[in-house]
Design brief:
six-stranded antiparallel beta sheet, mainly beta, globular, about 0% helix, about 200 residues, disordered N terminus
Length: about 200
């Protein structure tokens, strides 16, 4: 069920977050370093997330355990080179896996050409829920600041960009799980900066 909405989000009524990371010191809940596809690194008070080659969405989850009902917010800045379907975003409600490979959950991506998409992974199998869709709330191009927020309450997932609700979707596959950061290079490589993340548990 897809419902387009124009509601706005605000964290002022939520109080202090249950967790927050401004990436301005050495400690973080994300694994740092590079492999063949992806790199997470601290740089100039930000978390720099890079897709090193075109290989689909790549993600790492925060090592904070599973959460169920929450409001999650991440402040991104697109890199100097940002075009087309280069994208970044969030994975939420990703269940723990016995093999320590996170390949299930919900993924929200926003692209450099001002579009978003939403899909579900089930043990590595892709299920498209919303294909790439343009929205004026997404600032497109290089060196743009976009705040991506997700509210998950029971089976309803609501997604906001820069305070504007861009969609909501009801799905019961995953009631809780880890959250993390997603990055994707469409052609060569792509880097985005994460300036701050926080989440609030919802009653």
């Amino acid at each position: 069920v897809v419902l387009q909405g124009g509601a706005s989000s605000s964290t002022t009524e939520l109080g202090e977050p249950d967790w927050q990371d401004s990436f301005d010191d050495k400690r973080t809940n994300f694994y740092l370093g590079a492999d063949d596809d992806i790199s997470f690194a601290k740089k100039d008070g930000n978390l720099e997330i890079s897709a090193l080659r075109p290989a689909g969405d790549q993600w790492r989850v925060a090592e904070l355990g599973a959460i169920s009902d929450f409001y999650l917010e991440a402040q991104f800045t697109s890199g100097n080179s940002c075009s087309g379907k280069d994208s970044y975003g969030l994975i939420v409600r990703a269940p723990d896996q016995a093999d320590n490979i996170i390949d299930s959950g919900y993924i929200i991506g926003i692209s450099c050409d001002g579009r978003y998409r939403f899909y579900r992974m089930d043990n590595g199998s892709y299920t498209g829920l919303i294909n790439w869709t343009a929205h004026p709330a997404i600032l497109k191009g290089p060196n743009q600041d976009n705040i991506l927020s997700v509210q998950a309450k029971n089976f309803l997932i609501q997604v906001f960009v820069n305070g504007v609700q861009i969609f909501e979707f009801s799905d019961s596959a995953y009631p809780n799980g880890y959250f993390g950061l997603v990055v994707r290079a469409k052609t060569n490589s792509f880097t985005a900066l994460v300036r701050q993340m926080a989440f609030w548990r919802l009653p």
